[in-house]
Amino acid sequence: MTVPRPFRAVLPGTGRRGIGRYASGVAMVLLSGPALAEVQRAGTLLPGANSKDPIQIEATKLDYFDRDHKLVYTGKVVATQGSSKLEASTLVIFLVPKGADETQGVPSSSSEVRRMEAQGPVTLTSKDQVGTGDSGYFEKSENKVYLVGNVTLSQGPNVTVGDKVVYDLGTNRAVVTGRVKSMFVPKEGKAAPRR
Q1: For residues 108 and 110, what is the distance between their CA atoms, to the nearest angstrom?
Q2: Which of 109, 105, 134, 107 minimizes the C-alpha distance to 120?
Q3: Model-wide pTM > 0.90
């Protein structure tokens, strides 16, 4: 028995070409094994990432719904953009529909991401910062990433827990809500001055 090689689809640049014409080929290949897709120039979707870096997604399976403008990745999903990484059980990506004049009545999607939803456990990693939660989502119109349910943020030994975190990609500001608890460990080597 031979093990199929991972599928790799390169989706075109933001809003210029649709992926509808690739759907039948994608479906045929997806039936044979794990999926890997790369979305180029889709903007910053993960905290700490550079918008010029492509987004690469690996999963066991990809279902593409052309009419719904939706991609559903399932099974050990790993999405990376530069040094940032998202891990989840399921990742649903909603694409911006193409204009009706371009599709001539046939539903199709651009490669521009409108919204992403991750079901967990969800882990977001950017350099030495790690955020976890039960679920998460990215809303392009707000340019914000949300982690919801049993949220933990850590950077080295420092840890903050809460119910929800909202990370603004424009300002790099995170807000943790719910019953928030934090633990900060002072650096070793320098003693605090005594008074």
Answers
A1: 7
A2: 134
A3: no
Is CATH 2.60.450.10 correct for 7-183?
yes
pLDDT by position in tens, the chain (length 195): 333 333 333 333 333 333 333 333 333 333 323 333 434 334 555 666 666 788 899 999 999 998 889 999 999 999 998 888 999 999 999 988 876 335 444 444 557 888 999 998 999 998 889 999 999 999 988 999 999 999 999 999 999 999 999 999 889 899 999 999 999 999 876 555 566
Place of tokens 């990809």: 62
Q: Strand (E) positions, the chain?
A: 7-11, 35-39, 55-59, 61-65, 70-81, 84-97, 109-126, 129-139, 144-155, 158-168, 173-177, 181-183
Specify which residues 168 forms β-bridges with.
144, 173
Residue 114 is which amino acid?
A: R
Cβ neighbours of 38 (radius 10 Å): 15
Domain ranges in the chain? 7-183
Q: Which two three-digit tokens encode residue 63?
A: 């279902």
CA–CA dist 34, 75 (Å, integer): 9
* Beta-strand relationship, 144-155 and 84-97: unpaired
- What is the residue type of 156? G
Strand 55-59 and strand 70-81: the pairing is antiparallel
